[in-house]
Write a structure and sequence with these properties.
The chain is an alpha+beta fold. It has 2 domains: 9-76 and 141-152, Roll (Chitinase A, domain 3), CATH 3.10.50.40; 79-136, no CATH class. The chain is 18% helix and 39% strand. The protein contains 4 helices and 9 strands. It has helices at residues 31-34, 49-55, 87-92, 97-106, and strands spanning 9-19, 25-30, 38-41, 63-68, 82-85, 110-114, 117-127, 132-136, 146-152. The strands form 2 sheets. Strands 1, 2, 3, 4 and 9 form a 5-stranded antiparallel β-sheet that branches. Strands 5-8-7-6 form a 4-stranded antiparallel β-sheet. Strand 6 and strand 7 form a beta hairpin. The model has no long low-confidence stretch (mean pLDDT 90).
Length: 153
């Protein structure tokens, strides 16, 4: 069996956990649960860099564990990616209070047009009385250290 290298097409099963501040691991994704292995090209930009780094050098049948720091995952959390605006301005763009409340309650991504750009964000603060709306455009797992268990198929 040859070692996996950059550019190779591989198929894996994996479990991804977020390492919380207290050291506990919270599973956020698992190909096992979906019974759907992941196929990808090692080193391509379709996955986070840290995932490819764990797999590179392994062989078919290997079971690996690895930690991915934010810089090799979804990036650092950036306060500059949080938009503070008014609820009135959101409603001017066609959203209703019910739309906003539903998106906030479900932690559901919403599409926002901002300065000509089409962005996906999450409402993190909604204050109808104070007319405050904060939308976070960071990837949901930005700033998080990730733990992977990966099985090369």
């Amino acid at each position: 069996m040859k070692n996996i290298k950059n550019g190779d097409q591989v198929t894996v099963h994996y479990i991804c956990s977020i390492i919380e501040d207290d050291g506990d691991k919270l599973i956020v994704d698992s190909s096992y649960e979906r019974d759907e292995p992941l196929s990808f090209t090692v080193g391509s930009d379709t996955l986070i860099k840290g995932f490819s780094d764990i797999v590179e050098g392994a062989k078919k049948g290997d079971r690996l564990e690895g930690i991915v720091e934010p810089k090799d995952g979804y990036g650092e959390y950036k306060e500059s990616m949080v938009l503070k605006t008014t609820i009135a301005s959101a409603m001017d763009s066609g959203l209703t209070k019910e739309d906003l409340a539903s998106a906030m309650g479900n932690r559901k991504a919403m599409s926002v047009n901002f300065e000509g750009a089409h962005l996906m964000g999450y409402i993190i603060e909604l204050d109808f009385e104070g007319d405050i709306l904060k939308i976070d455009f960071n990837p949901p797992m930005s700033g998080k250290t990730l733990h992977f268990i990966i099985e090369i198929l």
